[in-house]
Design a protein that fits this description.
It is a single chain. This protein has 196 residues and is an all-alpha fold. The protein has one domain. It is built from eight helices and no strands. 32% of the residues are buried.
């Protein structure tokens, strides 16, 4: 009996890994795109408050990433339960296994750079975007094929931002705001088209 239950669980896990995940909502991505533009504009308008130094800049964008992740996770849980039914748990588990290493890497890189070498924090926006691009590429088997464009956008933006920031060794709000806004807007558009 235990072996049969174990085999059923394995089948469910394989099914979840090969089924398109529909827990990502276009509306949540539009919200994240708007949030990114709003924060970039706010940092530009009030740099003495929101981007006074490296730590403040990084803290603001880390908060944006955490808030964006919370929005995406909340929506994913709700939509998965509604759209995937009894497979929701397995689907969410698969998505979490794909995303967790990239989130952990981003957190560790951020803490180490800010703690050990804050002068090199200009590298963070580019690294964050490359990690998001890599996450997108790794999740492609469970997402609409057009996600390759959004993943490619983040990866390319990360490389460009690394080059731009490396030249001046400074942090600009728009190095995060524009890539995030365009990237999440593209994800929303891809999801809306896949839904049609």
């Amino acid at each position: 009996m235990q072996r049969a239950l174990s085999e059923i669980e394995d089948i469910r896990a394989h099914l979840a890994a090969s089924t398109r995940f529909r827990g990502i909502a276009p509306e949540a991505n539009v919200l994240i795109a708007g949030l990114s533009l709003g924060v970039a504009a706010a940092q530009t308008a009030w740099p003495q408050v929101l981007a006074q130094d490296t730590f403040r800049y990084v803290a603001v964008w880390a908060a944006v990433i955490v808030a964006s992740t919370a929005i995406a996770i909340t929506e994913a849980i709700s939509r998965s339960r509604r759209l995937h039914g009894s497979m929701a748990g397995a689907m969410l588990n698969t998505a979490l296994r794909e995303a967790l290493p990239f989130g952990a890497a981003g957190a560790v890189i951020t803490v180490v750079i800010c703690g050990v070498s804050p002068a090199t924090a200009w590298i963070l926006p580019g690294l964050w975007q490359i990690l998001i691009g890599l996450l997108g590429f790794s999740a492609l088997p469970n997402l609409p094929r057009a996600f390759v464009w959004a993943a490619g956008w983040y990866f390319l933006c990360g490389a460009v931002v690394l080059c731009m920031a490396g030249v001046s060794a400074t942090l600009s709000p728009w190095m995060m705001g524009v890539p995030f806004a365009v990237g999440h807007a593209a994800v929303a558009l891809i999801l809306r088209q896949a839904r049609a």
